[in-house]
Design a protein that fits this description.
The complex is a heterodimer of chains A (273) and B (345). Chain A folds into 2 domains: 37 residues, no CATH class; 209 residues, MetI-like fold (Orthogonal Bundle), CATH 1.10.3720. Chain A contains 12 helices and 2 strands. With 273 residues, chain A is mainly α. Chain B has 345 residues and is of the alpha+beta class. Chain B is 24% helix and 36% strand. Chain B has 8 helices and 21 strands. The longest helix of chain B has 18 residues. Chain B is elongated, with a radius of gyration of 24 Å. Classes of the chains: A mainly alpha (273), B alpha+beta (345). The complex binds adenosine-5'-triphosphate (ATP) and magnesium ion. Magnesium ion (MG) binds next to helix 1 of chain B. Chain B: This is Putative ATP-binding protein component of ABC transporter. Chain B: One of its GO terms (cellular component) is ATP-binding cassette (ABC) transporter complex. Chain B: It comes from Rubellimicrobium mesophilum DSM 19309.
């Protein structure tokens, strides 16, 4: 079914909003993007004196850049998978079952985020030091996992709670076991929202710095951590800019994926539209 | 052949008994309506039969087999919910096919049975639609087909048409009745609309506060209500409190010969059984309002003590507000201590 298209009258507030958004979001992106692709750009020129891929070549020729890209990707993937495996069943339990301590446990996830994160991290780093987890891949996985708990529990809980009980009962009625109901009814119904949470978890982990730096250093260096050290130690802006552009990739992929999920109509269907 | 046996079933939620010591046997191919006001335990009872609630005590058996503690997926029951509860992420075909797939039927047979079921409810060719592309009535038809396609022994319907408009409701309930009789499927239908129950049921169970008030064919429930509650709940009814003394029911405005012992009593008269006659002057009763329904009229009559009665008249134009009248019960039932003690013949 296609919706009839109507041309909406131009809304001045909307235009103003769009312009403001463009300035705030797009402008810095353009500046960083330009830096990444300029070989020479000296003050006070508005446009770089020389465009080119020179710094891409030098950046991508470095071993530590490639190592950190691999590290970041495997970290984000591992953390997201682990977090899904732990949090989705837990979220379902919170949404559908009643057990002693349910509310206390539920709010403890929020409390973890309510206090200054760095202090918490330093305390955890102390514990990890004793456990020999400092500077290891799994140490960073653990610390980043904690960071994803909040929205990997809260968002799916809301999604599961929004699934109609009658729908689940109707599935039991036609012969589905509770597990089958979860797989065939509950999960697809909550699917689009949960996909958003998983995506958020991946991107957030990819960009996470404090935990990765505090626990991972010096052996484990993620892309953002590397970028910071580049910015701190290199007088050449282009290195940071190139890394920054590389860092946009997961965001773009996430955006495209989100668009597909939303645009395919499964999103709307999930909400019974 | 499917008989449903409910024995002494009680369901408590904390201190509240939603259903209390309920007994009912539904015969093979029978359609029984559960009728009662909101909160009387109809849904709770139906959900216990479907397996979604477990009775606190008592037992439920289908064809002699005890299913009291059987989970819903292993019961031969099919339930249609008030809010259709269709799976919105599946199209109509997949909604109907889901249960058949779980039974591991061959694909060809699934397709054949789904199409037959859709045809049955007048939705042939709608398989590819998504559920949100259907009207409310069509959605309920799909929900019905989803249950019927599995050929359940017992069909359970919980106010399936409550969210539809009057016309559609009437049409769908006739369709359900026709299907039910053609398939000979034992059916329990929950409603709080008495017209729905009267139109559909082989037998009606009137419920109140989780208990049975009366079980009987629609005719009996309408014409011979056993309790004042049933009398007042089914159809419209005039209830007149008075005293019986020396062979007559007495009220300041009404007197009816009554062969029962003396004492307080409640007289129940249907509007169609309450005749009114014009009187000149006097202070017995006065017409308050006349409503013309075309084929008949309803006259609201205020008695001297303020009680308002309804009388059905063949022609509303013969009456006007302020007119002095005398009400004469032509058919009635007399209740004492919550039970019928006398009925006019
Ligand atoms: N899960 C539950 N927990 C606690 N109380 C409940 C529960 N389900 C039902 N009740 C109570 O049991 C009583 C009967 O409810 P039920 O839903 O069976 O009524 P009903 O006759 O179907 O009413 P309606 O016509 O409004 O649907 C009500 O007082 C209700 O509040
Ligand atoms: Mg109900």
């Amino acid at each position: 079914m296609t919706m009839p298209r109507r041309s909406a009258p131009i809304d001045p507030t909307g235009v103003a909003f769009a312009v403001a958004l463009t300035l705030v979001i797009v402008f810095p992106l353009v500046v960083v993007g330009t830096w990444a692709f300029s070989n020479v750009w000296r003050y006070p020129a508005v446009i770089p004196q020389e465009f080119g891929l020179r710094y891409w070549n030098t950046t991508l020729a470095r071993r530590d850049v490639w190592t950190s890209i691999t590290t970041s990707l495997s970290l984000a993937t591992t953390v997201t998978l682990l977090s899904s495996a732990i949090c989705l069943p837990a979220a379902y339990a919170f949404a559908r079952m009643d057990f002693p301590g349910r509310n206390v446990l539920f709010f403890s996830f929020l409390a973890g985020q309510a206090f200054p994160k760095f202090g918490l991290l330093v305390a955890i780093a102390g514990i990890f030091l004793n456990l020999g987890l400092i500077g290891t891949f799994w140490g960073v996985v653990l610390i980043q996992l904690v960071g994803t708990l909040l929205f990997m529990i809260w968002i799916p809980v809301a999604a599961f709670q929004a699934v109609s009980r009658r729908m689940e009962e109707a599935a039991r009625d036609v012969g589905a076991s509770p597990l089958r109901v979860f797989w065939s009814i509950t999960l697809p119904q909550a699917g689009p929202t949960i996909a958003a949470a998983v995506l958020l978890s991946f991107v957030n982990t990819f960009y996470e710095i404090e935990g990765a730096w505090l626990i991972g250093a010096p052996a484990i260096r993620t892309l953002p951590v590397l970028m910071i050290s580049f910015i701190n130690n290199q007088p050449v802006i282009q290195y940071g800019a190139v890394l920054s552009v590389i860092l946009w990739i997961p965001s773009f992929v996430a955006l495209i994926f989100a668009r597909r999920v939303i645009g395919s109509g499964s999103f709307a269907r999930g909400f019974g539209a | 052949m499917a008989v449903l046996d409910i024995r002494d079933v009680t369901k408590s939620f904390g201190a509240l008994n939603a259903v209390e010591r309920f007994n009912l046997t539904v015969r093979d191919g029978e359609l029984v309506c559960l009728l009662g006001p909101s909160g009387s335990g109809k849904s709770t009872l139906l959900r216990m039969i479907g397996g979604f609630e477990t009775p606190t005590s008592g037992s439920i058996a289908i064809d002699g087999e005890d299913v009291t503690r059987t989970p819903p997926e292993r019961r031969p029951t099919g339930m249609v919910f008030q809010s259709h509860a269709l799976w919105t992420h599946m199209n109509v075909f997949r909604n109907l096919a889901f249960g058949l797939k779980l039974r591991r039927l061959p694909r060809e047979e699934i397709r054949r049975r789904v199409e037959a079921a859709l045809d049955q409810v007048g939705l042939a060719g709608y398989g590819e639609r998504m559920t949100h592309q259907l009207s409310g009535g069509q959605q309920q038809r799909v929900a019905l087909a989803r249950s019927l396609v599995l050929e359940p022994k017992i069909l359970l319907l919980d106010e399936p048409f409550a969210s539809l408009d009057q016309h559609l409701r009437e049409r769908l309930r006739e369709e359900v009745r026709e299907l039910q009789q053609r398939l000979g499927i034992t059916t329990l239908f929950v409603t709080h609309g008495q017209d729905e129950a009267l139109a559909l049921a082989d037998r009606i169970v009137v419920m109140r506060d989780g208990r049975t008030e009366q079980i009987g064919p629609p005719d009996d429930v309408y014409r011979k209500p056993e309790t004042p509650f049933v009398a007042g709940f089914i159809g419209s009814m005039n209830m007149i409190e008075g005293m019986v003394s020396s062979g007559a029911f007495r009220h300041p405005s009404i007197e009816v010969p009554m062969p029962v012992g003396d004492g307080p009593a409640l007289l129940a008269v249907r509007p169609e059984a309450l005749e009114i006659v014009p009187v000149s002057g006097g202070n017995i009763a006065q017409v308050h309002r006349v409503t013309d329904f075309g084929a008949h009229g309803i006259v609201d009559v205020d008695l001297a003590d303020g009680l308002r009665l309804k009388a059905m008249v063949p022609d509303a134009r013969a009456w006007h507000a302020g007119q002095s009248v005398a009400p004469i019960p032509r058919a009635f039932a007399l209740y004492r201590d919550g039970r019928a003690v006398h009925r006019s013949t």
